[in-house]
Q: What sequence folds into this?
């Protein structure tokens, strides 16, 4: 299976997430980001970190080339950051296709998780006193 998961420790606890040992990982402060992939459609997936953002996208943005041209961007991460800076969490409404994802803003410690406009790529979440988890697949909660 493929998918992504973000785990935020609200109490700054360190958890042993051994079940994600084969996953790609980004760690930032008390938040872990994991991505599982089997290598298929790798060019359509994003697992990216820079100084200010973490971006995860699983799926295909069908209007990517059109948006890159319109907003004068060279790549998908540049486009997502530009749309986010222009439209905040409304940037998702500009994207079309079967995808889900997450954008973490390091500057204000906020997260925007999203499924596509048709709702066939849902995002699941869990919120407790100690953890906030958001994922593209329920099986990752096990």
A:
């Amino acid at each position: 299976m493929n998918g992504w998961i973000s785990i935020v420790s609200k109490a700054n606890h360190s958890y042993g997430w051994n079940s994600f040992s084969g996953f790609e990982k980004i760690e930032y402060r008390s938040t872990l980001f994991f991505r599982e992939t089997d290598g298929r459609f790798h060019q359509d997936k994003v697992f990216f970190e820079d100084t200010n953002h973490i971006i995860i996208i699983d799926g295909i943005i069908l209007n990517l080339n059109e948006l890159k041209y319109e907003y004068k961007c060279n790549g998908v991460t540049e486009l997502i950051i530009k749309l986010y800076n222009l439209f905040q969490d409304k940037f998702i409404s500009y994207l079309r296709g079967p995808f889900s994802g997450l954008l973490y803003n390091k500057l204000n410690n906020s997260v925007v998780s999203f499924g596509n406009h048709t709702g066939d790529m849902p995002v699941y979440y869990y919120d407790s006193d100690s953890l906030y988890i958001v994922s593209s697949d329920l099986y990752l909660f096990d």
